[in-house]
Amino acid sequence: MNKNNPICEMLNIKYPIFQGGMAWIADCHLASAVSNAGGLGLIAAMNSDGENLRKQIREAKKLTNKPFGVNLMLMSPYIEEAVDVVCEEKVPIVTTGAGNPAPFMEKLKNAGVKVIPVVASVTLAKMVEKMGASAVIAEGCESGGHVGETTTMALVPQVVDAINIPVIAAGGIADGRGMAASFMLGAKGIQMGTAFLVSKECTVHKNYKEKILKAKDRDTIVTGKTLGHPVRSIKNSFSRDFYTKEIDGHTTKDELENMGKGSLYRAAIEGDIKTGSCMCGQICGMVKEEETCKEIIDKIVLKADTLLKR
Ligand SMILES: Cc1cc2nc3c(=O)[nH]c(=O)nc-3n(C[C@H](O)[C@H](O)[C@H](O)COP(=O)(O)O)c2cc1C
User: Fold this and answer.
1) Which strand (E) or helix (H) includes residue 277?
2) For residue 282, which of 124, 125, 142, 291 is within the disulfide window of CB 3.0 to 4.6 Å?
3) Which atom in ligand 1 lies closest to the alpha carbon of residue 23?
4) Domains and CATH numbers, the chain
């Protein structure tokens, strides 16, 4: 799996498996567990201010001596502070989500940080390649959290054909078959969110974890399309109500935005899985066991290797 793999060589990791940044969920504990298991763990910077992010980074440094990264949420009001902290703390890798990383590219690159943006289109993939991205994560709309419009199956090969830097596939991958399929599409690595969300080391509230472990293939819904930032989450009172209000013609965009505020926190931290947003991907129906990150990664690598050797 790792022999001559450009992602492993570039990032100095054992397996080309990223744990996706997940706001309120991907903290130093999850990130260090994934890195210790040979993948690339990522701390989600989300909307946290610089000092909170610094604490997470310093804690992760105590928990692992392997490379780990930070996922920068480009729409965060603290994004400038987060970029400074990443550079000061010498974090070797960042992934970026929710936008165009152009304004921060130079600073990060000058500090020696490898920037790997999440993209949902060929256009953005080409743009970030020109800006000097080290690789891209092509994320299909099967994934949990904020989604684009194109599926992983359609997006990955088109991005692979359009650029000359390595592509990591994300969205709908949770086992060795998904990893092998991604490689067949031309990806050099994978990123998983939902599969790691249910890992033993993930500190998300147990109600949330149980909800995902019990979920079936058709249990997710996409809301927020009318606001221009669609989100995939579990069907529950919150998401059904949101969806109804989106199409009823009586609810304003501001009211909808307010409804969404704090909803992931309610589910992930407070365990309110009725009125909170339980973001997760369509692959939720396949994640059935709470395993350690090492067990998840070892199993995936073994299966993918076997399939790819056939
Ligand atoms: C609960 C949740 C929160 C997420 N938050 C973020 C985030 O803060 N930044 C980001 O770039 N991606 C975020 N994502 C996307 C993941 O990093 C990852 O790309 C995605 O989950 C992959 O698809 P999968 O869920 O099918 O494995 C989130 C996903 C989930 C499930």
Assistant:
1) none
2) 142
3) 8
4) 6-203+289-309 (3.20.20.70), 206-283 (no CATH)
